[in-house]
Specification:
The protein is mainly alpha-helical. 87% of the residues lie in helices and 0% in strands. The protein is built from ten helices and no strands.
């Protein structure tokens, strides 16, 4: 699958440079303003990169050309999911590192307690973006970009609303408590189940598609 990763890397360097620049700007703005909205939006933006790559694949007819290459359709689908995990993971780690230094400079005591609360919010946003991207990938692998475009916009808007509500100041103090006490394990299990189901649907659907 190394060739698939290289292909998407070249696509990202050529077509996703401005998107990455926006993500970096939102990350920096989040650290400067200490506003979780910017970080949530940066994760939301980076989570659509695999969908963008899939769109370019279809527009260039690479999905047809790939049938002449030694890659199974299962590998093609799996590679997009791995790209999704890698990109979201990188952004999440950057946010966590930044949040640690912000917490350390703001507080002189109970640093780990408040850092854990912020970390849990990041994990929550990460989970929501993973779910959104997984749903979009399974839909687009099944129906294609043109047919799945409406579902794409609906899922994206709903995810943006949910992500924004999590980092709203009114709920920001309550949500971490709920996450720590009741929700983290549930979210983890739901994530694993939904990702597995999404990947299975995407593989089955893509294997049956005719180009």
């Amino acid at each position: 699958m190394k060739g698939l990763f290289l292909k998407d890397w070249y696509l990202m360097k050529k077509y996703c440079r401005f998107l990455f620049l926006f993500v970096i700007c939102f990350l920096v703005a989040g650290f400067i303003k200490k506003d979780g909205f910017f970080h949530a939006y940066s994760m939301l933006m980076i989570s659509i990169v695999p969908v963008t790559l899939l769109s370019y694949d279809e527009k260039s007819k690479w999905n047809i050309y790939s049938q002449t290459m030694p890659y199974t359709r299962k590998q093609i689908v799996s590679e997009k999911y791995l790209v999704m995990f890698a990109l979201l993971g990188i952004v999440s780690v950057l946010i966590c590192i930044g949040q640690y230094f912000i917490t350390k400079t703001e507080l002189s005591s109970d640093i780990w307690y408040y850092y854990t609360l912020r970390l849990q919010t990041v994990v929550m946003i990460f989970s929501i973006c993973i779910i959104m991207s997984s749903i979009l990938l399974s839909v687009l692998f099944k129906f294609g970009i043109e047919t799945g475009r409406i579902i794409y916009y609906i899922v994206f808007i709903l995810t943006a609303i949910v992500a924004n509500s999590i980092v709203t100041p009114d709920t920001n103090e309550v949500l971490p408590e709920l996450i720590r006490e009741h929700m983290m394990l549930t979210i983890f299990v739901i994530d694993i189940l939904l990702i597995g189901i999404s990947w299975w649907i995407a593989v089955r659907s893509y294997e049956k598609r005719k180009f």
